[in-house]
Predict the structure.
Amino acid sequence: MPYPYRYLAEWFEYLNDDCDYPKWSQYFIERLEGLGAGKKGLEIGCGSGAFCRALAKAGYAMSGADISCEMLSAAEKSARRENLKIDFFVADAAALRTPSRYDFLLAPNDVYNYLPPEKLPLAFRRAAKCLLPGGLFLFDISSEGKLCGKVADTISADDREDVTYLSFNRREGEKIVMDVTLFVKRKDGAFDRLDETHTQYIHREEEVLSALRAAGFALLSEEGHLGEEKEGSDRLNFICRKT
């Protein structure tokens, strides 16, 4: 099957309209302000750019990087539509190289779950090189409980007038493979079928913390989604500073 987000990119924000991007973005803004972050930021794995747009509106000078050209195309269109100046460029989170260094990095919404565990140490070292001294690094992972207990061996579906989303999910060892099918309505009323496969890896908390320390990050806090208690949360948020 084709690579992730080749087809889903066009529909990603539309199908994720229950994520409450404004509230999620405000969580980042509050954390950045509370820690005295500078104004120059990069979102790793920016996707269609929802967080970049929200932070740009809040006065941050944002850039966005993603491995998916289709996602970046969607991000650029949305930014232009809202008259926002955001620099987007192609980059692999596992081997990140940037044109400049930043006051902070964001990597929300499962970015590092797309990397196998053996690539995390390198990915974090590359992130550190892209930060200014004392820079902040905020990212999350989907928890083991979510991936194994709520995603593995399930079917996800979202049926709308113009598109239907199906995801057939299975666990294969330490990863979750999601075979995604979209049925997209054409102007003539017929539907096109589009298929792609997503693979997310299970990351255990201590392995993540060990890789962060080795990359030169100090953990400032660890919490659940939007600051909730981490115990039982679907996401683990790590807020770190480059030492």
Summary: The two ends are 42 Å apart (CA to CA). The mean pLDDT is 96.
